[in-house]
Write a structure and sequence with these properties.
- The protein is an alpha/beta fold.
- It is built from 12 helices and 13 strands.
- It holds the Pfam family Glyco_transf_4.
């Protein structure tokens, strides 16, 4: 199949440091190419891919001090996609909603994966207006606030089997990986580690919008607690060491997390997760197997004390069974083939394509 992947321009594909959506686009693109598909990736010029790369800006916008406004760059990219749309059997968008008005004429050959939260008050009217656009969710919980729309299915994220190697033994610290922002819960992570009497290592980026939160709320706690070490942003190589050596990943989120890529990255290393019961957490973490799901800081402290009872090899096997890039790619190929056939989907189910996707994908 001839497939277009349209990525955000904020980060490169894959990202050099932080960047969940662009990382998933990279994994999917490379697996599609490996399986023999003709893939074109619309992304920043510093992206690395075995697909045909259409560079829609020189470098990732977050790393370009001259790029003040991301909208013009994305609009120019989408015009190039529109101009070349007839070259592709399927166009897979990962850029939120900006493309909706321009794809009306060929919408039935498109799919849009929604990577973000959908409970914001401004979104309901927009999605109601564009309720014919084919959509994929990354968890069932992500769909909960949405009006009736054209869901094709839920496709969980997946990682290459060998990108984060299994570590059978931990080094006795807790890990926090992600963004320094209120919804990610860094303050809660510090309190959990302090009360559990364990070291905490924080590897996270700080966006400009969260600088005051960092300086006013989080940094003073980091300085106050001798058991807390702030590392900053880390790359993929450092992530393998950081997560693989941790006794557990702390995921004390305070928002409806659509998926939580870091949780399956930890699982790939064999590292169990202690997570608050929010958003997609119950879908991703098998309680008592790949981690412990808790309702409060008190429960999290107790979970940290019990987390060593979980079998790290079993954590890794759960990742291999549920969250590989091979499984993710097969799910998407089932959707692509049905789109290319212009077939109707049974909408509203968890996987509208579930009954025949496996059979279709196996033909690739």
């Amino acid at each position: 199949m001839k497939i277009a992947q349209i990525a955000p321009l904020t980060e490169s594909v894959p990202p050099k440091l932080y960047g969940g959506t662009e990382r998933i686009v990279s994994y999917l693109t490379e697996e599609l190419v490996r399986r023999g598909h003709d893939v074109t990736l619309f992304a920043s010029g510093d992206s690395r891919t075995s697909a045909e790369l259409v560079a829609c800006c020189d470098v990732a916008l977050r790393l370009n001090p001259k790029a003040q406004n991301p909208i013009p760059y994305h609009v120019m990219m989408l015009e190039e996609v529109r101009r070349r749309a007839n070259e592709f059997d399927v166009l897979h968008f990962h850029v939120d909603v900006l493309h909706f008005p321009i794809i009306r004429e060929f919408a039935r050959r498109t799919v849009t994966t929604l990577h973000g939260r959908l409970d914001l008050p401004d979104l309901a009217q927009l999605y109601a207006m564009f309720n014919d656009i084919p959509l994929v969710s990354i968890s069932d919980d992500q769909r909960r606030p949405m009006p009736p729309v054209n869901w094709l299915g839920t496709v969980y994220h997946g990682l290459p089997n060998d990108i984060l190697p299994f570590r059978p033994k931990a080094s006795g610290y807790l890990a926090f990986l992600g963004r320094i922002s209120p919804e990610k819960g860094p303050e809660a992570a510090i309190e959990i580690a302090a009360r559990a009497g364990m070291p905490l290592k924080i590897a996270a980026k700080i966006d400009a919008v969260d600088l005051s939160f960092w300086s006013d709320r989080v940094e003073p706690q980091v300085l106050r607690h001798s058991n807390v070490e702030f590392i900053g942003e880390i790359d993929e190589r450092a992530k393998a060491e950081f997560l693989g050596n941790a006794t557990a990943l702390l995921f004390p989120i305070d928002w409806p997390e659509p998926f939580g890529l870091v949780t399956i990255e930890a699982m790939a290393c064999g590292t169990p997760v202690v997570a608050f019961n929010r958003g997609a957490v119950p879908e991703v973490i098998d309680h008592g197997v790949s981690g412990l799901i808790v309702e409060s800081i008190d429960e999290a402290v107790e979970a940290v004390r019990r987390i060593g009872s979980l079998d790290r090899a079993r954590v890794r096997k759960t990742f291999e069974r549920r969250f590989t890039v091979g499984r993710m790619c097969s799910d998407y190929l089932g959707i692509y083939r049905l789109l290319a056939r212009d077939e109707q989907f049974p909408l509203g189910s968890r996987n509208g394509f579930a009954e025949n996707a496996a059979e279709i994908a196996s033909t690739f």
